[in-house]
Amino acid sequence: ARLSLTAIPLAWAQAFAKPMAIESGELSMVLAVEAEPDGSRVRARAVEPLAVRTVTVRDASKKLLVDRVTLTVKPNVDYSAARVIAKLSELTVTMPDGDTVGAELAADVTNLSTTPVVAFTAQLQAKIVNALKPYLNVPTGPLAITANLEGRLEGQTLQLAKLSSTVNRDGNVLLAALDLQQPVRADLKASTFAVPNPTATALRLRLGEIPLAWAEPFVAQSKLSGQLGGGTLEVALRTVEDVTLTTAEPLTLRGVTAVIEGKTLAQTLDLDANLTATKRGETVTYDLRRIEVKQGQTALAALNVAGEAKLGAKLSATAKGNLDADVAALMQQPML
Length: 336
Known about the structure:
Elements: E1 2-9, H1 14-17, E2 21-35, E3 41-58, E4 64-80, E5 83-94, E6 100-110, E7 117-128, E8 143-154, E9 157-169, E10 173-180, E11 184-187, E12 192-194, E13 203-207, E14 210-211, E15 222-239, E16 242-260, E17 263-280, E18 283-295, E19 298-310, E20 316-325, H2 327-330
């Protein structure tokens, strides 16, 4: 059998969309359906992509939620009493300003008669131009995003075997990259998780070049220049309340100048930092193994400090360390 729909107005579904208002959009698809005579197996596949074109939707207050978005995808479903295999191939979402999202999604569902087991994979590539502007206070410019995910869901248990994502700024400049280093098993009902080796790295986060000016909306009356030059952070996850963060590669700041309320506090400083911090419950222990501050080729200060902080209604902290400083050079900084 073949099912064909051509340019069906989405406005026909308005009764089911209230209080939202569907202003425009249409649906087209050509679907082939095959089945065994006894109905024990049914297969459906897209002969032509399912297409939802130029969709515009507003909420009850007339605020624009979706503006002229087009989605195309090739669905494929193979159903039997024991197993369902579903794929969404060549999924593409496009927007008028040039934002695009492409994805390949797949799910293999077994154990249908009791607790379904869903093995899933997802690959995503996106170019974000303006879609995030209403939600971000920083001018990121165009972003290129890739992500890969592989896992399994059984009842309230989610297992992630693979997770990786990279975000690049315009010009293929790394903004951030996240990689899962070992499988994670999460109990969604209890909000707990576990990894095979709790003392080993579970997540690795690489930071690229991030302009410090992006922090200005969050710091009142500030003018910031310079950038986070990079760094790599590794995270060990033992429980939700027991997490360790370590710098595998130093965090670097370059050319930092900070003006707060019209007063210059720092000028063209470079900083490198290596650290380890562990949070157990309300207690944070930290070891700043080495922090170096320079201005050009001039070394201003080097610090190492270790201590403990107790969170809660009243913060308390202890610290002990060493500071080596070029006092004369430091005194030339505006804040001193």
